[in-house]
Specification:
Nucleoside Triphosphate Pyrophosphohydrolase; 2 helices; five-stranded mixed sheet
């Protein structure tokens, strides 16, 4: 099974709201091949590229997915592993969650890939 190292960002704004993305990706399923039928909310983030550490990947993903450049990154606060099927192939998702803060709350989608434009439905700041 191929591992997939990911950096996830727990991004807080000045009001301590958490930014989440609403998405639905029909190419992702559980280990039994069941695709979630409805959209779900996830943190900012994605796969780490070769040579990246968690903080570098988190900064890149944050910029690509939100357009935000000046976040202040703190420590990695959580790690998890789980298995998902991506395009029919089992992947061991190794996710690291890093805490970050931003003063800016205006988001843009200019850095989105074609796939992100297809699967991301919304971005929203959530009150904790």
């Amino acid at each position: 099974m191929l591992p997939r190292k990911t950096a996830r960002v727990l991004l807080l704004d000045p009001e301590d709201r958490l930014l989440l993305i609403r998405m639905h990706d029909p190419n992702v399923s559980d280990t039994e091949g069941k695709v979630l039928e409805r959209a779900y909310w996830v943190t900012i983030g994605g796969e780490m590229e070769a040579g990246e550490d968690i903080a570098t990947a988190a900064r890149r993903e944050l910029l690509e997915e939100t357009g935000l450049e000046h976040a202040r990154f703190g420590p990695v606060v959580w790690w998890t592993e789980h298995v998902l099927c991506v395009h029919g192939e089992s992947r061991l998702m190794r996710e690291s969650f890093i805490l970050a803060r931003t003063d800016a709350t205006e988001l843009n989608r200019r850095g989105w890939t074609a796939l992100e434009r297809e699967v991301i439905q919304d971005m929203k700041w959530w009150t904790l």
